[in-house]
From TrEMBL:
The gene is aroF. Its EC number is 2.5.1.54. It comes from Cyanomargarita calcarea GSE-NOS-MK-12-04C. This is 3-deoxy-7-phosphoheptulonate synthase. It is an enzyme of class 2 (transferase). The keyword Transferase applies. Gene3D superfamilies: Aldolase class I, Phospho-2-dehydro-3-deoxyheptonate aldolase, domain 1.
Length: 352
């Protein structure tokens, strides 16, 4: 349920209501919106009537039931307001959200060595990217495929962060690595294969860095939002949803089917920011530019593009990786669409 407070409600009264509702065994959460304060209520609310809560204070404007199973992730929970996820990077704060300029994330699938990660960082930064994304721990279908360099790759990401000033995004596969990853990463990625690893979701929800939650390859939109709910319920409000393609029947020409319809659908259902990953979504570098442009036209808040200095030699996902030159050209192409929708950044840094 959500309790909408009247404009100008005294803080002491809001705190008193919170206390009273806690005594009822509920978990009230104060949400400060642009115009109003809302108290979100999660817990055993099925037997409660909105009128009972309404009686607690004359400052309560209305009490609404959140019908969706995902409560905190629902658009209604924030009274229709979008969440901006604010991320601190060496270059300043970057905001990802519905009313913000587009944020571009780029980098190789795997961190292979210092030279390649630093070179990629500098190249994508020069082209206008805001984040470097590279995997230290890689979820591979085959146990014989390159698994990532692990902890030593985290050090290389830290070096690339220092040299470029870009924020770092990297994936956690196993909770035992989380503390080390959190030290280096500005955003922690949970990959498609772990989207429903609920114990991992609880743990990333209990650490302070924003979480990039990729859609499972066979996950419905509701599964995905419920996965986000785990992170939110564990206390981390900063979740970004990343569509990376789902499994359909064609595997001959595309690796996955990039479901761009999630952009308007998520916009309706949730306040959380949206990222589109056309690299995993298509599996082929030649298809990435058109789908990146389409994603901007559809209204995405951010893009994730795989870039490798020498895709032919990449240890993972070479066929879908752009060269730095192609990425540079793509950024110019994207700026045309980005400007047309009023979201092309001079800089996405320090907007708030
Ligand atoms: C990746 O981002 O490199 C990756 C493994 O992605 P996904 O989890 O979407 O397959
Ligand atoms: Mn990859």
């Amino acid at each position: 349920m959500i309790v909408v407070m009247k404009i100008g409600s005294p803080e002491a009264e809001i705190n008193r209501i919170n206390e009273e509702l806690s005594n009822w065994g509920l978990t009230p959460e104060k949400i400060i919106g642009k115009h109003k304060v809302v108290i979100g209520l999660v817990g055993e609310t099925v037997d409660l009537q909105p009128e009972q809560i309404q009686e607690v204070s004359p400052w309560i404007e209305q009490v609404l039931r959140v019908e969706q199973p995902y409560k905190r992730a629902s658009r209604q929970y924030r009274q229709g307001e979008a969440t901006n996820v604010l991320i601190s990077t060496p270059n300043g704060q970057v905001a990802i959200g519905e009313n913000q300029p587009l944020v571009i994330v780029a980098g190789p699938c795997s961190v292979e060595n210092e030279q390649m990660i630093v070179e990629t960082a500098l190249r994508v930064k020069a082209a206008g990217a805001h984040f470097l994304r590279g995997g230290a721990y890689k979820p591979r279908t085959s146990p014989y495929a390159f698994q990532g360099h692990g902890e030593s790759a985290l050090e290389l990401l830290a070096a690339a962060r220092k040299v470029s000033g870009l924020g770092i995004i990297t994936e956690v596969m196993d909770a035992v690595d989380l503390d080390k990853i959190v030290e280096v990463a500005d955003v922690v990625q949970v990959g498609a294969r772990n989207m429903q690893n609920f114990s991992l979701l609880k743990k990333v929800g209990a650490q302070p860095k924003p979480v990039l939650l990729k859609r499972g390859m066979a996950a419905t939109i509701e599964d995905w939002l419920m996965a986000a709910e785990y992170v939110l319920a564990a206390g981390n409000p900063n979740v970004i949803l990343c569509e990376r393609g789902i499994r359909t029947f064609d595997r001959e020409f595309t690796r996955n089917t990039l479901d761009l319809s999630v952009v308007p659908v998520l916009r309706k259902l949730t306040h959380l920011p949206i990222m589109i990953d056309p690299s995993h979504g298509t599996g082929w570098s030649e298809f990435v530019p058109s789908m990146a442009m389409a994603a901007i036209a559809a209204g995405t808040d951010s893009l994730m593009i795989e870039v490798h200095p020498n895709p032919k030699k990449a240890l993972s996902d070479g066929p879908q990786s752009l060269t730095p030159e192609r990425f540079d050209k793509l950024m110019q192409e994207l700026s045309v669409i980005g400007k047309a929708v009023g979201r092309w950044p001079q800089s996405a840094v320090a907007l708030v």
